[in-house]
Amino acid sequence: MTEDRCLFEETFGCQSKKDQISKAGPTRIATIINFSKEYQDGIHIDLSERLNLDPNLVIHCHRSCVSTYTSKHHLQRHKKRSADESPPHAFEEETKIGRKSFPF
Ligand SMILES: [Zn+2]
Fold first, then answer.
1. CA 72, CA 50: separation in Å to the nearest integer?
2. Is residue 103 predicted with pLDDT exceeding 70?
3. Which regions are flagged for Basic and acidic residues bias (predicted)?
4. How far away, in angstroms, is 84 Cα from ligand 1 center?
5. What separation in Å is there between the alpha carbon of 2 and the centre of ligand 1?
6. Which of 4, 8, 43, 59 has the fewest CB atoms inside 10 Å of its own CB, making it the most exposed?
7. pLDDT at 2 over 90
């Protein structure tokens, strides 16, 4: 049963998760590889190597871990955090509709 370990165990520290481990095929893996390149976490290096050796590669992972990992929202938050130094100010325009012209 040692095979049934989540691919994202190190990323998410999800060892204690009680969710069932599911399997992901080559299509899923390709998506994970793409996201991993964005995260620059090195997962894609190992994965693409394994996928090269076995085009029908199947990996084990929590379903919730994959969906978090391959979520655009999650990626954006990750990018925002790592690009914190570069943009000086984000242009934020506040448009308030319910503006009061007179207090009384
Ligand atoms: Zn997991």
1. 25
2. no
3. 82-97
4. 28
5. 14
6. 4
7. no
Q: What is the 3-state secondary structure (H, E, C) of 7-18?
A: CCHHHHCCCCCC
CA of 43 from ligand 1 middle (Å) equals 14
pLDDT tens digits along 67-98: 999 999 999 999 998 877 555 544 444 444 44
Ligand 1 centre and the CA of 52: distance in Å?
23
CA 19 – ligand 1 centroid, Å: 8
Taking residues 35-44, what's their average pLDDT? 96
Residue 44: per-residue pLDDT? 97
Residue 92 Cα to ligand 1 middle (Å): 36
Which position has the token pair 């994959």?
Answer: 66
**Separation of first and last alpha carbons in the chain:** 72
* Residue positions counted in the chain: 104
**The predicted structure's pLDDT at residue 83:** 78
